Amino acid sequence: MATQKTLSTRAWGELLLLSGIWGASFLSIRIALNEVPFVTVVAHRVFWAMLLLWAYVLVRRLDVPRDPRIWGAFLMMGLLNNVLPFSLMAWGQLYIETGLTSIFNAATAIFGVLVAALVFSDERLTPNRLFGVGLGFAGVTIAIGIENLTRFDPRSLAQLAILAGTLSYALAGAWARKTLSGLTPQVAAAGMLTGSSLIMVPAAFLIDGAPDLSLAPQTVLSIGYFSIVATALAYLLYYRVLAMAGSGNLMLCTLLIVPFAITLGALVLDETLAPRAYLGFAILALGLMILDGRVHQKFRKSPPL
Predict the structure, then answer these.
(1) pLDDT in tens, 77-105
(2) DSSP secondary structure code for residue 121 in this structure
(3) CA of 46: how far to CAs of 158, 162, 191, 198, in Å?
């Protein structure tokens, strides 16, 4: 059985940096949505990130695939990992707080476990993982509020849209493992963003028209942040942390994002969350830690009294 990697001080530092970058992305997207339609927001995010990542690939002289099947896989990956989740979450943030969005985003790990169990024989659901999944769903249900699921107003629909976005992320993870596992990670990320740009840039022109270039300075800065920093550069940092810490430890990022997003939303946008949101996050966090195996291993290694 593979052992869980121990995080070094450097790995912890870069994991916290990545979490802070992604936590702030919810705020930057919300600021941009005050002036830019959400379809155009998503187009900005994937297009500029794509250009930066391809520049990185060219500078590093990484091999670029020529097989049409791989480029078809890039297109599907862009749809599942960028187009659908970015669009659903950007629309959802028009109606709900950035902190609550980040809590629902943490459910990505829950859906990832379920999708992987359905698709891959080596990732079956053990009783321990089932318990973690159950706690995770309980946490999300508490955060969203059961009563909101019975009243389909824009707010509750927005919450469901964001959860649908996390499910799309999970499907993308399975798709990447089946179709893109042999590629250099940076090339896979650049190809994925190319696929999503081929969808979102034309969609933005058709739905929203030509992009407005006379934007407020804070909007321009927000677009620059979530496209260049929180997408292109975050992908490069993501793969560094993955190599140092392993995929199990990297899952902690979904938890660490939440306090960053909630704090920034409160400080900049004066947002507040209901107490049940914090209770739901705590239960979700416990479920994710059980899924990760740390809690179970700690109790197994504890000496008897």
Answers:
(1) 999 989 999 999 989 988 887 777 877 77
(2) G
(3) 22, 18, 11, 10
DSSP H helix total and E strand total for the chain: 14, 0
Residue count (the chain):
305
Indicate the pTM of the whole model: 0.77
Please tell me the chain's helix, strand, coil percentages from 3-state DSSP, rounded to the nearest 5. 80, 0, 20
State which amino acid sits at residue 16: L
Range of the domain at 26: 10-298
SS3 of the chain: the string is CCCCCCCCHHHHHHHHHHHHHHHHHHHHHHHHHCCCCHHHHHHHHHHHHHHHHHHHHHHHCCCCCCCHHHHHHHHHHHHHHHHHHHHHHHHHCCCCCHHHHHHHHCCHHHHHHHHHHHHCHHHCCCHHHHHHHHHHHHHHHHHHCHHHHCCCCHHHHHHHHHHHHHHHHHHHHHHHHHHCCCCCHHHHHHHHHHHHHHHHHHHHHHHHCCCCCCCCHHHHHHHHHHHHHHHHHHHHHHHHHHHHHHHHHHCCHHHHHHHHHHHHHHHHHCCCCCHHHHHHHHHHHHHHHHHHCHHHHHHHHCCCC
Is 219 inside any structural domain?
A: yes
Overall number of domains in the chain: 1
On the CB side of 93, CA atoms within 13 Å amount to 33
Does 130 map to a domain? yes
Average pLDDT, the chain: 81
In this structure, is residue 3 part of a structural domain?
no
Instruction: Give residue 11's identity as a one-letter amino acid code.
Output: A
Q: Is residue 79 part of a domain?
A: yes
